[in-house]
Design a protein that fits this description.
Blueprint: H1 5-18, H2 26-35, H3 45-63, H4 67-81, E1 86-88, E2 96-98, H5 106-124, E3 130-132, E4 141-143, H6 156-177
Antiparallel strand pairs: 1-2, 3-4
Helix pairs in contact: 1-3, 1-5, 3-4, 3-5, 4-5
């Protein structure tokens, strides 16, 4: 599944932010932002706190059990982010959308980009593309970019753990039946 580059990348950033550990430091988040080409910044403690609070709101879009709940969660994000889309042609690039002024602070840009990215995934694809890991002990979220849209786990590691556990349970069951 290919999303538009800006929205897809921003949605992937949203999932990555949600998956950051509670006690992470500013450098971890700065690296994450740089990897997703959304913002380069030296985060202050206050900015880090604001982004950590934002990730809890992002979680609601992934955790929603029904489509209406998911739409409501994304609409709350858009309202909170106060994104104002505009067309930009910076650095010789072809025209593309930005959701916050390029000179806005990093928190404003991240909030606008991630809210818009989730909105684009929700409106341009199946809402099931915003997923939560099916492993019982995992809270990670993901944006399903697989071809068939049937991803159930955040990583191969979680999928393998679940499948190995199920296999061992079946083997124990067979042992008991003998």
């Amino acid at each position: 599944m290919h999303f538009n580059a800006y929205g897809g990348n921003a949605a992937l950033l949203a999932a990555a932010l949600v998956n950051v550990d509670d006690g992470c430091d500013a450098r971890t988040v700065e690296t994450l932002l740089a990897e997703h080409r959304v913002a380069r910044a030296d985060l202050t403690d206050q900015q880090l706190q604001l982004l950590m609070a934002w990730r809890l709101l992002l979680w609601e879009a992934f955790a929603a059990a029904t489509r209406p709940e998911q739409v409501d969660a994304v609409n709350r994000l858009l309202t909170e982010a106060a994104a104002r889309p505009y067309v930009s042609t910076h650095d010789g690039q072809s025209p593309h959308l930005h959701y916050a002024d390029e000179n806005a602070d990093v928190v404003t840009r991240v909030r606008a980009a991630t809210a818009a990215g989730l909105a684009l995934v929700l409106t341009e694809t199946d809402p099931c593309r915003l997923g939560r890991c099916s492993a019982p002990d995992c809270r990670a979220v993901f944006v399903d970019v697989s071809r068939n849209g049937r991803r159930a786990y955040c990583s191969r590691l979680c999928a393998t753990r679940v499948h190995v556990s199920a296999h061992r349970d079946r083997q124990r069951q067979r042992q008991r039946q003998r």
